[in-house]
């Protein structure tokens, strides 16, 4: 199975970090390609993108100032298949990416992603009190997976906080 390419450049406004690519994303070569994943709709509904993009448009996020990566690069059917060793390696890789590319905000797409990255168990939605890498802001948002049973409006409201945070930088 092919590895999904990251979409990165220096000084991004937001770097979105997921668990790992789905099988569908690996097959298509595009992030958040599973038709049940609501990532692209969430970005639009929360005001982060001017239109609803599709997975095939993932590279266009760079034009807006957003990037995409995952804490683990190996595609799986579910995050439960990820090993402790993969998370450990992914943590170190993600720290290197952050130090090399200097994004302003790291948005973790799911509490579990941030918990694996930060090794913190008690995590709340939104901006975290202490970033793992100094000079960035850590932001925790709900997973965009269709399996998440949280109200869609609640999810988009949390992502809307990112829009407000970005306004503080401008």
TrEMBL record:
InterPro entries: MUG/TDG, Uracil-DNA_glycosylase-like, Uracil-DNA_glycosylase-like_sf. Gene3D superfamilies: Uracil-DNA glycosylase-like domain. Keywords: DNA damage, DNA repair, Hydrolase. The keyword Nucleotide-binding does not apply. Pfam families: UDG. Residues 6-162 form the Uracil-DNA glycosylase-like domain. One of its GO terms (biological process) is base-excision repair, AP site formation. The keyword Transmembrane helix does not apply. One of its GO terms (molecular function) is uracil DNA N-glycosylase activity. It comes from the Bacteria. This is Mismatch-specific DNA-glycosylase. It comes from Heyndrickxia oleronia.
């Amino acid at each position: 199975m092919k590895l999904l390419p990251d979409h990165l450049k220096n000084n991004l406004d937001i770097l979105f970090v997921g668990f790992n690519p789905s099988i569908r994303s690996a097959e298509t070569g595009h992030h958040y390609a599973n038709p049940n994943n609501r990532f692209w709709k969430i970005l639009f509904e929360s005001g982060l993108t001017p239109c609803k993009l599709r997975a095939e448009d993932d590279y266009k996020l760079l034009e807006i100032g957003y990037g995409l990566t995952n804490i683990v690069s190996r595609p799986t059917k579910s995050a439960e298949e990820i090993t402790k060793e993969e998370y450990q390696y992914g943590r170190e890789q993600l720290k290197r990416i952050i130090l090399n590319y200097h994004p302003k905000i790291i948005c973790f797409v799911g509490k579990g992603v941030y918990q694996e990255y930060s090794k913190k168990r008690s995590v709340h939605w939104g901006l975290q009190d202490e970033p793992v890498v100094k000079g960035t802001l850590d932001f925790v948002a709900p997973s965009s997976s269709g399996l998440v049973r949280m109200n869609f409006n609640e999810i988009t409201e949390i992502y809307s906080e990112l829009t407000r945070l970005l306004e503080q930088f401008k």
